[in-house]
Write a structure and sequence with these properties.
The structure holds 2 protein chains of 2 kinds. Chain A is an all-alpha fold. Chain A has a single domain, classed as MetI-like (MetI-like fold). The longest helix of chain A has about 35 residues. Chain A is globular. The two termini of chain A are about 35 Å apart. Chain B is mostly helical. Chain B has 2 domains: about 50 residues; about 230 residues, MetI-like (MetI-like fold), CATH 1.10.3720. Chain B is about 75% helix and about 0% strand. Chain B contains 14 helices and no strands. In chain B, α7 crosses α12, α9 crosses α11 and α13 packs antiparallel against α14. Chain B is globular and about 70 Å long. Classes of the chains: A mainly alpha, B mainly alpha. Chains A and B meet through α1, α3, α4, α5 and α6 of A and α3, α5, α6, α7 and α9 of B.
Chain lengths: ~260, ~300
Amino acid sequence: MKRARIGPWIALTLGTLYFIVPLIATFEFSLRMRRGEYSFDAYRVVFADARFQATFGYSSLLALATIIVGVLLVVPTAYWVNLRLPKLRPVIEFITLLPLVIPAIVLVFGYLRLYNSESWLPMTGHEQATDLLLTFGYVTLALPYMYRAVDNGLRAIDVRTLTEAAQSLGAGWPTILFRVILPNVRVAVLSGAFLTFAIVIGEFTMAALLNRPAFGPYLQLIGANRAYEPSALAIIAFAVTWACMGLINLVGRGARTAAPAP
Amino acid sequence: MTQSSSTQVTAARSAGVSFGRIDWAWLGVAPFLIFALLFLILPTGFLVVGAFQDNDGNFTLKNIANLSQPSIVAAYWISIKVSAASAVIGGLVGFSIAYAAIAGGVPRWIRPTLMTFSGVASNFAGVPLAFAFLATLGRTGLVTALLVTYFDFNIYQYGFNLLSFWGLVITYLYFQIPLMILIMAPAIDGLKREWREASTILGATTWQYWRYVAMPVLWPSLLGTTLLLFANAFGAIATAYGLTGSSLNIITILLFAQIRGDVLHDQNLGYALALGMIVITGCSNVAYIWLRARSERWQR
């Protein structure tokens, strides 16, 4: 039933145009900094900007911290729910979906009220404490994606048998978690990690409202004040997102070829 | 008391562990629950409670009533319109593209390419997306310039403005359409080829096939995903902020200004503003989850 008809091609062509044209336009615009000829000047200016380096580095570090905290939080929880508390699964799943219901701007509003400098747990008074708060905020934002990735990974392996085998060989809980379970859901964790990175690197709302020098607020600042650099930054951001998604595909494919069907 | 201890015994038996370890089993998820409480539930709860309090902490409905100020209603309304338009258009276009790539009889390589690209584009939101559209359809954007050069047609003279309702909708579609494609792909896979063949053999027209076979199966996921897109756009702020600064009066930008500088001069009204957002995204997400449960019947 191969019907090569005109309709699908029209839909795909128009779709491609809509998605490709802004990328081409942005790229073209980013090359126009030098009058009369195309050049990579805008990129040179961006990469040489100390604030670009500082904010991009800061956001990368935050993304890394978010991934570490997220993995430490999600993997044991999802493992434990799979192993011992299957009845709790709907509750945990519901909680992990809440960040999709509650917009980030509402969450950070709550943080600012609950953890301000006069509160019981002042986290916005001190820079490091605010960084911590921002990291926890990002962990919350990434929770739906991280939890689903890890949970899917755990469902694909036999958690109970692995645990019992490890226990009968005398392994304690840390060994089971980090040397048995984690390597087995490596691909799922990495997918969640790259997705987290893509979400965190350009995040604007939380960083701006918590007043931290992250990449998202920097982008906004440049956008308000410069002409060509924003386009270069948009291309860079797109490339970073693309790299994250490419890595997710790569580790996924690697897992499929590395683990041949028994 | 008796009841709870008897459930504990049953739980202990079914888990095959002794009494002492049951409490310990709950402890396994305690870090997660504490985290969720501290950074998800309490902050939201604080705003919800604050929405029903006056400055001295007494219960009041005044904040909710104050939401009916014209400027606030206008902000909610334009947010709802932008989200609904981008969700409906994004839903229809995304579905058409996904259907074309999956069931349209096009070469095989198109589908994985489309899926990978959708994964990227659905995450390419926020400030950079705004830059991309400014470079495309802004006053000096490439498409604007090309239209003037080759067709002598200045879209800005004919009332188009990127920093407006439709400009925002067109920009939001860049992440809405890919999200629709990603979520609808499994549902379209669930449309079995045999159904199409059987209906053709029985003499059904294409329209009859869609009306009586495909749509009854697809509508929960179509509608559900559209609602998800709505909530997705409703909570978005960075794209709009990058595009328009704070000139477009959507609800997230109003809330942003309120958090930054209490522009409403009423803290508790700010909480009510947040509560209104939670209610709206909450409703569309609950409907999405319900519809998703319905649609999964067909995907086995």
